[in-house]
Every structure is written in C-alpha cells, then in structure tokens.
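hey can u check if this looks right to u? its 100 residues, i copy pasted from the old doc so theres a chance i mangled smth
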Amino acid sequence: MLRIVWEFVARPECAAEFERHYDAQGTWAQLFRRSPHYRETVLYRDRTNANRYLLIDVWESLDAFEAFKRSNKTDYEATDKACAALTLREMRLGYFEDLA
C-alpha cells in the first residue's frame, strides 16, 4: 500500500470548510472513490496548532494514483484550484510504502 502524506496549514477563517473538503467523506475522498485502487483518506488536526493538519491518502500503489490523476485530470485540477484558497501552506511530505 502507498500512503501519500501531506501537511496543510488552513487559513484560520477557513478551517471548518477545509475539514469538509479534506476529511474522509470530503470532496477529495469522493473524487478518489472513482478509482477501485483508492483505499481511504485520514485527516489529523494538530493539538497545538488548530490550523495545521496532517493528511494521509491511501492507494494500492503510486502507479494507481498517477493513473487516476491522468484519467481524471480536469476534475483533479479543478478541485485543487477550488481548494487552494482554503490554505496558507500545502506540502507533500512524501510517498510512503509498507515494508512488508
């Protein structure tokens, strides 16, 4: 399994909306569910900084995720653009795979 790990800092006035788009039932997860290779999204909020989040998207493989992005390019880019205003910072921390 592949875990794509992101760090976000939401705009303080947009935190609730950010959570609605990025949580396990949010806009991104709904988009990703088009793929049979998507597994889940998990969103964590920092206990010491309420606007900072760690997000993990779980896919079968990097190839499956990349294929999804190619085949859903228009919707992926539109969702990314619509959600960009919700954050002050977005950083992909990496692609992590199970060792076993």
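The chain has one domain: 2-97.
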